[in-house]
Amino acid sequence: MKKHDIVLIGIIIILVLIGLGSIKFHQSQNGKDLRFAEITQNNVLIERIDLNAVEEPREITLPGKYHEIVLVEKGRIRFKETNCPDQICVRTGWLENPGDYAVCLPNKAIVNITEIEN
Questions:
Q1: Are residues 53 and 108 both part of a single domain?
Q2: Residue % of the chain over a pLDDT of 70
Q3: Does one domain contain both 52 and 110?
Q4: Measured between alpha carbons, how far is 68 from 103 in angstroms, rounded to an integer?
Q5: Are residues 48 and 37 part of one domain?
Q6: pLDDT, mean over the chain
Q7: Residue 87 domain boundaries
Q8: What predicted TM-score, i.e. pTM, was given to this entire model?
Q9: What is the pLDDT of residues 49-74, one digit of tens each?
Q10: CA–CA separation, 34 vs 89, rounded Å?
Q11: Which residue has the higher pLDDT, 37 or 24?
Q12: Domain count of the chain?
């Protein structure tokens, strides 16, 4: 390897570390913002939940052809169970960060996380 190759690799490593540091910093700041979970079905807002204000876990049953339960805990939400054919929404797991979402296409239900910055 030539000297300029080593310098180039060093610059790339520094840029990657700066990028990772800024991502980590942004994630640490998310706890200071208001995070909401929005549950929609057939393009209609069913419920909007302040995830920071949840004190006890609770379940929300969605209407529709398929039996679907959404579980809400402090700071996170997920599809707990459904009897739709593919179970993709359940396998998506916990949603915690703004921009996270899960979709149940057969039941036309969406759960997504949004935030309002302080």
A1: yes
A2: 92
A3: yes
A4: 12
A5: yes
A6: 88
A7: 33-116
A8: 0.69
A9: 999 899 999 999 998 888 899 999 99
A10: 24
A11: 37
A12: 2
